[in-house]
Amino acid sequence: MFGMLGAILRGVRSRALLSAGSVLLTALAVASAVLGPIFAGAVTNSYLVTRLREAPPALTGLSRVFTPDSQQSSADAARDAVAATDSRNEGPWRRTVAIVQSERLMALRGSVELWARDDACEGLEITGRCPEKTGEVLLLEKAAEQAGATIGEPLDLVGFEPPALQGLGLPRPGIGEVTVVGTYVTPADATDWLVPRRLTITNEMTSISGPYTPYSPGPVITTPETVEAVGQWTVRVDTFLDVPADITPAELGVAARSAASIPDDAVVEVEGGTLADDSTNDLAAVVDEVESQQATARSSISPAVLSLVLVALALLMRLLTAASELRVPELALASLRGVNSRRLWALGLAEPLTILLIATPIGIALGLGSGLLLTRAWLVPGLSLPIGAASWIAAALVLLAAVAVACVAIGLVVRESLASQLSGVRRPVAARRWSVIAQLTLVSLAAAVLLSKLSDSGGGDPDVTDLLLPVLLAVVAGLAATRLTTVLATWWTNRSRGRSLSGFVSSRAISRRQEGTLVILPITAAIAVAVFGAGVYDSAATWRTSVAATASPADTTWHSPVTYAETLELTRRIDPEGDWVMAAGSVLNPGAHFAVVDSSRLARVATWPPTWSPGRDVEQVAADIEPPGVVPTFSGRRISVTIDSDVESERPLSLEVRFGRRDGIPLKVYLGPYGPGEVTRSAKVPWCRDLPCPVEGMTLGGGAGTNTAMSGSATVLSIDADGEPIPGVIEGAGWVATPDPAVRTAITDLRESDGHLELDLDTGDSVGMARLTSGGIIRQRLALMGPKVQQTALAKLDEGLGLIPVGPVGEIEGMPFVGPAGLLVDYTSFITDRPVYNSNLDTRVLQREGAPAAVIEALSAAGMTVETTLAQERRVLDQSAYALALRLYAVVAALVLLMALAGLFVSAAVQLPARRRDAAALRVVGVPRSSVMVAVVRELAVVLGSAAIAGILAGSLAQYVVLRSLTLGYAEGLATPALIATISPLRLVVLALLAAAVFGAVALISASMTVRGARGATLRESAR
What we know:
This protein has 28 helices and 34 strands. Helix 26 (929-963) packs antiparallel against helix 27.
């Protein structure tokens, strides 16, 4: 036994380079198997933590309303409310906060609630001080400005009846006089308040189908005694979810079940009163999402791990085969001594099994260490390392595969005849039948998988074909490159006789030296896997950027509580040059959503990923949807319009001028009458004194803009504000006949000439009006359409409901807020000279990175709250299980290339003695040294070049085929941008140049070492 052990150790030492390479490859294969399940579990847990921490607390926390059933103090009710909700909470929850809130009162020109919370002022930015006595209040800063309240002065919270409720005989409650001791600003985040948006102004909402929602100036913060004095009150109890780094999906499931313990629209009897749920908690959906992420992580990590393992085994097969060939004399001597087949196999396997035994603990330690390193480097701090049975099972399977590889390598030598073993000359032999069958099977399987993926046009989660295709294409490309290189070398050898000596020598060496061409397969596989891994990683990163920009189309996205028109005016006022902020919005409509943008600022402010509009930059996108004219605006107290009329009409002509809407109320004035000749009429517009007014439309008709019979011509000579011409009110305003089929127009011709607006009018035998709209608005609004817009929905857009008909002028892949399921339009198309239901349009402000502090402060002071940021959305997506799993592809791409280079160096070192003998033979017969070196370089360049080309092509094909039918993440839905399965030519060129540089260096070094040792003594030494 000790003799066998000594022989094994001597063999391992004598073939130290091959042994070290085999140990390294085996260790990497085992480490990959151990790392895969560990990393899959770790990224899922990390995603869970990140998902919960980044989600708005309103979606993960609890908000319940406690109604006391008897007359008790607010302090006792708050204590009962906290106890009741805490008793129902199970899992990782933080402390519960009680807010005593009054019933809604009609005061401060809207609907008001009074709130009392013990630590209210600790979580608010306050000017003044916190209420301490009964009757002292804290108002929202913007609400205080609108109400004319002054800190330290009394304020009457008298009853107020909004226009929508007037005449209904409802009571008009109020609480009388209070003292304003301070103001507060809406919290920028949910650190102290579960739903910060509750502490902001909400505008009045009116729609044709929904209920009327009055204006609300935000909660009035006061003392519990003040709330009790109002009369009716309840206690709201808010609970934040606690998210430690070691939270598990099982603990989240417990929390989700407790969150759903009170059914929707149900009241639960508790001690001291009743408890009802009033939250938007969605933990159950997070649990389902995490389970899906677990499956996605496992299926996405598996191809990377499998690729790494297979490349390692392929290279291990090459090294073990080389080691076995070096042991041919040893095994032949054992056969001459009468060793039987069983003992010969044992002798042959002893050395490789010893190498595998040495490599196993190294691989396990490397897998655990790399798992810990990657977890600490990429995942959330404090995350535990999940080591399960899957890692050990995978490691055992890899070891069994390595043993099988060793058996195949030894079998190729042991099964040769004794005469072949003793001859000492390795000549090309025909491929064995089993080898041909195996190769044909691989080619057939790769073709079948490739066809199945090409025929699958729908996106979905990764499946077994995505796992197999990159590896199969890599192996098939390697086999094809090996075979093609050998055939071409044989053909070139026959053709090059009598020509270049170096060409003949190199092609003959390729066609006859199998050891040289065998390196093509593992190098091709390594490059293919690296190209595929890098391509998938880069494509996924680009896709996640697109998804993040859909949710936050700028560095910061603010939510606006006021109308789009008011938001637009705000952005124009605080940023006149349009460099930092812009108004934007979205309208959700089944089959065709709308993304409403300010096209004049889109290119400067918004984030626009190039994948949204391939081949078209954001400037061109903005130009495609911008209106032909610009709606003019002005500020002033009085407007004057001068008209030169030659119109015959049944009634005296009057002019209606429209200025859009404010607070849901249309703003307009009537000027007239206009008789024949040049006449100027004026009217007061007090609402345009402080806030600019857009001149959206005009109507020339009978009294109050009614229909009348008319014929002739009229010219609008000028439109002035406070005696001064309004800039751009005619020239560049793009006046058109109002594109409304319900309006019978009297306009037969409309033209602009020398700064005047000329109209030809004729109603014929009927009546009508000359209704005009600025901005160049046409009936079919200019729009860019996403690929997921349903064609049947386009025909229904003009059926009311506050939507607009569109005429798509092109297609794009994505857009803000609504992604590929939307229509991108300019704001003028949506709000100019038409009623807009504010409840339909979700309005935001997009803020560019680096905006001045004054701009940010103005947004906050106007009641805007930060909805999200691009960095936050990208961070959430980057921490998803799939994104974290794809990081492993970058590691795999680097590792397979390093393994290929290591295998190449070992293979070159093993072949060096044989190459030196061939070179020495050529030198003895008088071949110049330069020709020998050129022949060696050419041989290696052809072999390595064919491997690089085949690998790049196979990896690119696998990337394209897999990505075109794969969804690279969980964020699926109509608003999710599609993945653009493109191949980066720049990345391929860089990779090709790197391969050429590395392989060229290897060829030069190998040629130099070959020629340097090629002497006649080399042949004499080999003949001994």
